[in-house]
Amino acid sequence: MDFLAGCIGGAAGVLVGHPFDTVKVRLQVQNVDKPLYRGTFHCFQSIVRQESMLGLYKGIGSPMMGLTFINAIVFGVQGNAMRLLGRDTPTNQFLAGSAAGAIQCVICCPMELAKTRLQMQGTGEKKSSRKLYKNSLDCLVRIYHREGLRGVNRGMLTTFIRETPAFGVYFLTYDVLTRAMGCDPDAPYMIPKLLFAGGMSGIASWLSTYPVDVIKSRLQADGVGGVNRYGSIADCVRQSVEKEGYMVFTRGLTSTLLRAFPVNAATFATVTLVLMYARDMEAGPKDCEPAPPGHHAQLQPQAQASSF
């Protein structure tokens, strides 16, 4: 039931947060010499005006497709890691979260590659005159035929560098906040406290590795239009800093932070409601943290839409 609740909660988070993610990616990878967007809100307005509301949801199929596997990996690895570590401490929460973040990169990287390519497709066009990719699966298949497994896993190293500490920070922050706010079964305002902890944990995790996400997006979008600009991670960093200065690492940050809180709040609210309903049906004991005894807050929404 924990797995099912996590999947449903993750889906709710994707639906809420995907428009913000589209804006983030557009801002991160736009040409600095000929920028299409002046900022977060101008990007929102431009996409809706030029591509309709559906433009904000380009590439949503990819995170939805990978949702089940990513939730299974994250919750499964984090829970098993905590049991192996034995003690429920903030440090162990960080280590378990980091392990979960590292392992789920296998699914997350190809998923985000397809999402990024679809989000960039038909930029500024209400109806694309020529669609290179029909959907997320078609995108990955075409990339595989052209570039092989290496192409499908483009950006894997940067995804690993981003996800490993980000998930550690997420689980650590959530653990510290829920302990500090006193999330007991009979505590007042229990659900708002959980929502606040989840939302703030999402913000903390994004802030911890956001510069890496900018580079990852640029590497995964590289080659759209048939032109490859970057030879490696270091080359991407060098070119980006030379052209745009160090502020390049904050591109799209506003939309990301605007997205982080409601996405994690929506995810956590859904997870909590599903579990509460399930436990009512089973007439089992109700507990503040939907986790087995001895494990503090095992069930937690994902920090990214990664991600998502």
Structural class of the secondary elements?
mainly alpha
Number of strands: 0
Helix content: 55-70%
> What's the shape?
globular
Rg for CA atoms? 19 Å
What's the rounded overall pLDDT mean? 82
Oligomerization state: single chain
Describe this structure in words.
The chain has 308 residues and is mainly α. It is built from 10 helices and no strands. Helix 5 (105-120) packs across helix 6 (136-152). The radius of gyration is 19 Å and the shape is globular. The two termini are 22 Å apart. Residues 285-308 have low confidence and may be disordered.
Question: What's the structural blueprint in terms of helices and strands?
Answer:
Blueprint: H1 2-29, H2 40-51, H3 61-85, H4 90-103, H5 105-120, H6 136-152, H7 156-181, H8 190-221, H9 233-244, H10 253-282
List keywords for this structure.
0% strand, globular, 10 helices, mainly alpha, single chain, disordered C terminus, 308 residues
